[in-house]
Design goal:
The protein is of the alpha+beta class. The protein folds into 2 domains: 167 residues, Lipoprotein localisation LolA/LolB/LppX (outer membrane lipoprotein receptor (LolB), chain A), CATH 2.50.20; 115 residues, 2-Layer Sandwich (Phosphorylase Kinase, domain 1), CATH 3.30.200. The chain is 22% helix and 45% strand. The chain has an 11-stranded antiparallel β-sheet with strand order 6-5-4-3-2-1-11-10-9-8-7. Strands 12, 13, 14, 15, 16, 17, 18 and 19 form an 8-stranded antiparallel β-sheet that branches.
């Protein structure tokens, strides 16, 4: 009887070991497969052209905002889009060329440089940030699904810090194009988009991206910087010196834009997937009249929290997608502003 028990225990231990080994191998394979897909996601904007109908939903409390538009993308950086919904935006056209956005005036038919950002929160990663991505996020694998008649790998991406939105991502196996994306705080959906229709590498009339570009004297992009010290040398005010502004968010790069002879600093922090931005500039005497010294202003813009203040004639804005209380904590931890 004792021998039978010993043999049974040994068999159970061996089987358990085999199951654990198979599980580890499966996870290793899934992780490797996910990395291969991420490589396609990174490469996709450089090589894949497409036409599609895209729908976007964004939530702010009980309010839901919905956008639907036709989009044509020509790699590596040309995009044309025309709004279908809502009715107040219907037929509005936007073109992206060389990293800049231009919107068409309905009356004159002319395109002018747009000051805003691309109106969709896209799932975007950079190859150089993959290490941060795997350090700061857990990847859960789900069964494949069909989106717009294309087979997609489905992943749930969850922050290890438990303070960031959880994401569901549908990635087209063939191209690496993100076909569907959902973002949640807890069980509450805050952003989502998906392709209702899609055609990969269709014939594209390049004339759709053509218009006479007027030289913009008001705003000039200078250069990218990869150290905080090098940025501070080129401006006349102290910049934020934090190389990490929150758990996992490290300084990635910065740039300076010259607008009406005023230098605007943009510092970009990333955790491998999500970004936090800091904007700083010295205000002119005229602009100072619009702000009260030390007053903190908070607003929500396209699902992201914007916190700003003026101190010692330097205006600072913090923009990020974390919860408001976490953004406030980051804001108060920022030092050396205009001192």
């Amino acid at each position: 009887m004792r021998n039978f028990l010993k043999i049974s225990v040994c068999i159970i231990l061996v089987c358990t070991g085999i199951l654990i080994s198979l599980s580890l191998k499966l996870f290793s394979y899934q992780r490797k497969d996910f990395k291969a897909l991420l490589e396609k996601v990174i490469l996709c904007p450089e090589v894949v052209n497409y036409w599609g109908i895209k729908e976007v939903e964004s939530y702010r409390g009980e309010q839901k905002f919905y956008i639907k538009y036709e989009i044509i993308y020509l790699a590596p950086d040309r995009m044309w889009m025309k709004y279908i919904k809502p009715d107040k935006l219907s037929d509005r056209e936007v073109i992206r060329r060389n990293g800049r956005l231009y919107s068409k005036n309905r009356r004159s038919g002319r395109f002018s440089l747009e000051r805003g950002r691309y109106p969709v929160i896209d799932f975007e990663i950079k190859k150089e940030n993959l290490r941060l991505l795997f350090k700061n996020y857990k990847i859960n694998f789900h069964e494949d699904e069909i989106v717009s008649n294309r087979e997609n790998a489905v992943f749930e991406i969850e922050s290890r810090s438990c303070k960031k939105p959880r994401m569901n991502v549908w990635i087209d196996y063939e191209t690496g194009l993100v076909m569907k994306y959902e973002q949640y705080f807890g069980e509450n959906k805050i952003n989502s988009y998906w392709f209702d229709e899609i055609k990969i590498n269709p014939e594209i009339d390049k004339d759709i991206f053509s218009f006479k570009e007027r030289f913009d004297k008001k705003s000039t992009d200078l250069k990218d910087y990869f150290s905080l010290e090098s940025i501070e040398k080129d401006v006349d005010f102290p910049v934020v010196k934090s190389k990490e502004v929150a758990y996992g968010y490290v300084f990635y790069k910065g740039n300076i834009t010259l607008r009406r002879n005023n230098k605007i600093v943009h510092l970009l922090y990333t955790d491998g997937l999500d970004n936090i931005s800091i904007f700083m500039n010295r205000l002119s005497r005229r602009d100072r009249q619009r702000f009260d010294e030390g007053e903190i202003k908070i607003r929500t813009e396209r699902g992201r929290t914007v916190i700003s203040k003026m101190e010692n004639n330097v205006h600072l804005s913090l923009i990020g997608g974390l919860e408001k209380k976490d953004m406030m904590q980051i804001f108060f931890s920022i030092n050396n502003t205009g001192k």
